[in-house]
Give the backbone structure.
Amino acid sequence: MFEVNQLSLAIWLPIIGGIAVLTIGNDQHAARVRVVALLVSIATFLVTLPLYISFDKTVGEMQFIEHLRWIPALNINYSLGIDGIALLLILLTAFITIIVVISAWQVIQEKVAQYMAAFLIMEGLMIGVFSATDAILFYVFWEAMLIPMFLIIGIWGGPNRIYATIKFFLYTLLGSLLMLVALIYLYVKSGNSFALADMYAVKLNLTEQIWLFAAFFMAFAVKIPMFPVHTWLPDAHVEAPAGGSVVLAAIMLKMGAYGFIRFNLPITPDASHSLSGVIIALSLIAIVYISMVALAQTDMKRLIAYSSIAHMGFVTLGLFVFNKMAVEGAIIQMISHGFISGAMFLCVGVLYDRMHTRKMSDYGGVANTMPKFAAFMMFFAMANVGLPGTSGFVGEFLVILGVFQVNAWYAIIAGTTLILGAAYTLWMYKRAIYGAVSNDMVKALKDINSREGFFLLILTLSVLIMGLWPAPFLEIIHTSVDKLLTLSAVSKL
Amino acid sequence: MMDDMKLIYLAIPLVCLFAALIAGVFGRQIGRVGAHSITVAGVAVAFALSLYVYLDVIAGNTFNGTIYIWGVSDNFPFEVGFLIDSLTATMMVVVTFVSLMVHIYTIGYMRDDPGYQRFFSYISLFTFAMLMLVMSNNFLQLFFGWELVGLVSYLLIGFWYTRETAIYANMKAFLVNRIGDLAFLIGIAAIYATFGTLDYSAVFASVPEVLGQTIEILPGSEWSIITFISILLFIGAMGKSAQVPLHVWLPDSMEGPTPISALIHAATMVTAGIFMVARTSPIFEFSETALSVVMIIGAITAFFMALLGLVQNDIKRVIAYSTLSQLGYMTVGLGASGYAASIFHLGTHAFFKALLFLAAGSVIIAMHHEQDMRKMGGLRKFLPWTYITAAIGSLALAGIPPFAGFFSKDMIIESVHQSELFGSGIAYAAVLSSVVLTAFYSFRLMFMTFHGRPRMDQHTLQHLKESPMVIVLPLLLLAIPSVIAGALFINPMVFGDYFSGAIFVLPQHDVIGAIAEDYQGKSDLAVVFSFMFHGILQPPFWLAISGIFLAWLFYIRLPELPGKAVALVKPLYSLLMNKYYIDEFNQKFLANGTVGVGRLLSKFGDTIFIDGWLVNGTAKVIGYFSRALRPLQSGLVNHYAFAMIIGLLVLMTWFVRIN
C-alpha cells in the first residue's frame, strides 16, 4: 500500500501542507507558519528518500508506477512513474525547497503564510511534472506550477515585478499552447492515448516529426532558456525574491531540459537527429554569446542569470550529440547547476538583505567585514567556474569528453566557458567582495548568522560530495540514459 | 606490505589537506600558534613519508593503483589513483621539502599579518594540491591537481585582497592559466577519444598503435593525432609553467607575500608543466613536430625573459624573470628529449630559487618592505647570513661549478647541443646567450643589494638587522642542496637508469645517452670531477664568468656605465621596461576587447533586438487585440491564479476519488 503511493505522497504532501500553512493565517502567527512550513518540507524530503533507497538501478523502465483513471471519456489518466533522471530531479526539488524555506526565515516578514504556501504547493507541482507519465497530467502540472511562481515574483518581487511577470508569462504561454496542440495531435495519431509510452511507439513521418519537434521545442527552449528566447530570465531573476530565484534557477530551468528528454528525443527521434545541428548551434551560442553578455552586467543577479543560461547551454549541447557520456554529463550538469546557481542566488540574497542593492558598484571590500561569507561565496564562485572537485566540473567535463568524440570543434567552442566563465564570475567577485572597504554601508555589514551559515554549509557539502564522488549520481541514471538513447536511436519513419 | 605502502601514499597528501582544513576552518579557535604548529607538523610528516617513499622507490618498489572510482560513464570508470615511480618520488621530495622550509619561514615572515592562519591554511592546501598532481596515475586527477594548484595560486596572489594591484594580478593569473587549461582539457578529451582511457599506463602503452591516425582540424589539413594531443598538452603546460606568450601572469604574481613567490611561483606550481611533459614523454616522443614546438617556445622564453631580467629594479621581479627564463631552459630541455636533464634542473632550481626568494624576503623585511634595489646597497654588513645564502643561490643560478645549477643547466645545454631536431640550432644559441644574461642579472642583483654604498634613508639604515632564526634557518637548509644537489645526483639520477621506468625516450632522440657515453663505468665522484673539468673548458662556463664580470664592471667598478648604456640603446631599453608591450596589448585588445564586445552584444543583441523588437513588439501587437477583450477581465493576476490552482486541485482530487 505504502509503496504503491510513494510518488503521490511526494506530490500531495507538500500541496496539502501548503494549504494547511495557508489556513494558519496571517502574519501574527508567522513563527508558527515558518515551523510548519519547515516541517512539511522536511517531511517531503523524507518521503522522497525511500524512492532513492528502493530504486532499482538495473532497469531503465519507469518505476513506482501509479495508475488511476482520471477522465475516462478522453482517456486521460493519473499515471505516475519515474526513471533515474526524474528521481534525481525529484530529490533535488525536495532538497532545494528545504533550503528555500530556511532562507526565507527572517527575510520574509509580510504575507509569510502565503509565501511559504506558494513554495510548498509549487514543490508538489514540480514533483508532479517530474513523475507524470500521462501527457495531459504532465501538462496540468507544468502549467499549474507556473502560477505560484508568478505570484512569488508578482507579490514579493522588486519594483519592476509586473513587467517581469508579464514577460515571463508571455514567453511561457506561447510555448505551452504549442505544446498542447502537439499533444492533441499525438493523441489522435496514437489512437486516443495520452500515455507517454504510446506516444513513444507511434509512427510519424519526418514532416510530422519536425512540426511536433518545433512545437515542443518552443515550450521547452523558453524554459531552459535557450538563445534567443532567454531574455525573460534575467528580468524574472532580478525582480524575484531570493527564494524565487533559487527555485527558478535550481529547478524550473531543468524542466525545459527534462521536457527535451521526455518528449523531443523519444517522440520525434528522426527530427531530433536532423535538427540536432540547430540545437547544437544554439547551445554553443548560449555558451559563448551569453557568457560575453554576462561580462557586461553590473547587476549581480543579472550576471548570475546569464551565467545560468550559459551553463544550461552545456545541458542542451550534451543532450543533442547522442553520445552516452555527453547525455550523462548533461543530466549531472542539471543537478549540479541546481546546487550552484541556487547557492549563488542565495549569496546575492544574503548581501541584498543587508544592503538592498544588487549593483556590484555599491559593494566592494565585503571580504573585510564578512570574511565567512566571502569564503563561502569564493567556494561557490569556483564551483560556478567548474573547478575540479566541485560538482560544476563533473557535468562540463563529461559533456566535453562526449562531445569531442562527435566533433572536436564543438568541444573547443564549448570549452571557452573555462575562460569566459572564469572571467565574469571572478570579475564579479573582485568588484563586489575583494578590495578595500568602499563605503560606510559595507563597513557596517555584519557577517552571516548561524542560519545563513547553515544553508550555505549544506550546499557547500552537496557541491563537494558531488564533485569528489559523482559515482552514486551517475549510477542512478545509467540504465535510464540507455533507454533514452535507445528510444532516440530507433527511427519512426 | 603493499597495503601498508598504499596507506603511506594516501597519508602524504591527506595530512596536508587535513592540516589546511583545521587551520582554515578553526583558525580563530586554535590561534596563531595552533595554526602554524599543525600545518608545519603536517608538512613535516609529509616530507618524512616522502623521503621514505623515495628510498623505497630507489630500492625498486613502484606502485600503480586505484584509490577509488570517481564515477562511471559510458562504461568507463574514471578513477582516482596513484602512480609512484622515480619521477613522482623525486617531485614529492622536492615539493614537500621546499614547502616545509617555506612553512617554517612563514612563521617569521608573516608574524604581524592579520591573515596568519588563513595563510598557513592556503600553503598547506597548496601542498596537498601539488602532491595530488604529481602522484596521479591518470589525466583526470592530474587535471584536478592542476586546477586546484591554480585556485590556491589565485587565493595567494590575492592574499592581500585590499590592494587593487593584488586582486588585478590574481584574476589575471587565473584567466591566463585558464587559457592553457582549455587546451589541456581538450587534449584530455582527445586522449579519451583516441585511446578510450585516461589511465597513464594504458594510454602510453597504446601510443605506437595510433601513430597513423589523423584528425582534420581545419578542412584540408590533416594532423597526426599524436601531434595534436602533444601540442594541446603543451599549451596547458605553457600556462602553468609560464611560457611565452602565456607568461604574463607570473611577474604580476609577485603581488603575493614573498613565501608564496618562493613556494608556488618559483619552486613548485610553475614546474607542473615541466613535470607534465616529462610524465607524458611516451606521447611527446612520437611527435617530432611537437618536440620542436616545445624547444622553440622554450628557447624564446629563456632568452627574451632573461633580457627583461636585466632592467628590473624590484628585487622580486628580477628573480621572477629569472624564473621565467629558467623555466624556458627546462622547456628547451624537454624539447630536446633531455627530460631527465629538465627534471634535474627542476629540482636544483627549486632549491636555489626558493633560497633566492626567501633571501629576498629577508632583505625586504630588513628594508621595511622596500623592494626597490636602487634604495638598497651595502646590505652584506648588516645581513651576513642572508648575504651568504643569497650568494650561494646566485652562484647556483649563474651556473658556476660546483654549485647545483651548474650541473643541471650544463646538462640541458649539452642536451640541446646533441639534439638534431628542427629548431635545435636556434635553441642552442638562445640557451648559450642566456647564460651571460643570467649571470649578469643575478650579480647585478647581488651588487645592487648587498655591495656598494647604502642608498636607503637614515631611518631604515639605523634599523637594519639580520632576520630572526626562524627565517635564517630555512635559508641555511636550502643553501645546502643548492650547493651539493648537482654533484650528488648527476650520476645516479641523470646518467644512471633512475628514470628508465618513468621517462620514455626513443633511441634516435636519446641525447642524454649520448652525453653519458663519456662517463660510462666511472664512480660517482669521478663523474662529478670529469664533468666539472669538461664544463670549465666549454663556452657556458666562460659566458657565465663574463656575465658576472660585466655586472661587476657596471655596478661596482664604473657605476656611471648603466646610465650611459641605457642612453645608448634608448628604444631597446623602453621596449624592455614595457615588457615588449605584451601586457598592454593583452589589456587593451584582449581584455577590454572582450568586455567591449560583451557590452555591445548585451545592448544590441539582448536589449534592442530580442527585447525591443521581438518581445515588446509582440506584446504591443497582442496588446492591441486584447484591448477589445479587456472588459471581460478584472486584470488582477493573482485572482486568476488562485482560482486556477484551487480549481485544479479540487478537480484532480475529485477525479482521483471517484475512480
